[in-house]
Amino acid sequence: MSDTSSPMSGDMPETETKCGYVALIGAPNAGKSTLVNELVGSKVSIVTHKVQTTRSLIRGIALKDEKQVIFVDTPGIFAPKRRLETAMVNTAWGGAKDADVIGMIVDARKGVTEQIEDILDRLKDIKLPKVLILNKIDLVKRDSLLALAQQLNDRIAFDETFMVSALNGDRTDDLMVYFADHMPKGPWLYPEDMISDLPMRQLAAEITREKVFLRLHQELPYASTVETEKWEQKKDGSVRIEQVIYVERDNQKMIVLGKGGATIKAISTAARKELMELLETKVHLFLFVKVRERWVDDPERYREMGIDFPI
């Protein structure tokens, strides 16, 4: 990184740094988390087929030349029916309003759904620069993409429209350049080698939660969460991690454990493997399953997830 704290020698102009926030919003499963991971160049947000996987604001930090872009992966926006869902939607809109630029991601295969209509209605009242991102373009014909882009721009005058595939990285470079160029002038907020502001304990819990969902997304109800209870650095450099998977009922506990403990063993193996790659050291992971009825009404669980408890 060039030294921006003092004038450069000779007649060369001082390099100008920029830094700001981009909030990515959209309906559940639009591809926000996949896009954040692609733009950051590393996994900072978990991805599953289960809708509403992202619950809190996940910030991924990317660099483009002398510009630092902080991407805020927000929970999917939908019509909430339960307290946890209300907290997630409130968190998403809060993240959008605090950003410098808003990127609205639309699943190009689904087009303008009722959820998209609701998002557009609220988005038009937010006085911030807005960018339209049509995702999953590899699955849609070009004529349909152009028609969808026109339909959405007729509703809101987006500053720019991008058509990308977050999964394979198609055309995401142009999107990154645009965001970097439109950040406000100012010093970086995070060190050069930092890719997320999520505490490691919470990121580890998110990784395990991803493995739970990937393994049990058709069997386990939505009301489950993971918390890291202990984190111990051993003398040999390895890490001992103890985590609790909370469910609401005894039958859900049995689903997570599996016959003879086979399911939780598979979840632990998958999570430990990814944690070892992330931490670049040996990981001793111990998972426990506890029943906590109506944990979704416990303010402490919301604090652990990093979201506000809705009254």
Describe this structure in words.
This protein has 311 residues and is an alpha/beta fold. 35% of the residues lie in helices and 22% in strands. The strands form 2 sheets. The protein has a 6-stranded mixed sheet, sandwiched between helices. A 3-stranded mixed sheet has the order 7-8-9. Helix 3 (114-123) links the parallel strand 4 and strand 5. It is globular and about 55 Å long. The N and C termini lie far apart (46 Å). Residues 73-76 are annotated as: G3.
Q: How many structurally independent domains?
A: 2
The topology string of helices and strands comes to: EHEEHEHEHEHHEEHHEH
Rg to the nearest angstrom? 21 Å
Q: Please report which band the strand proportion falls in: under 5%, 5-15%, 15-25%, 25-35%, 35-45% or over 45%.
A: 15-25%
Quaternary form: single chain
Helix content: 25-40%
User: Which consecutive residue ranges, at least 5 long each, have pLDDT under 50?
Assistant: 1-13
> Could you say what the CATH architecture of the largest domain is?
3-Layer(aba) Sandwich
For the biggest sheet, the summary is: 6 strands, mixed
Round the mean pLDDT to the nearest integer and report it: 86
Between the first and last Cα atoms, what is the distance in angstroms?
Answer: 46 Å
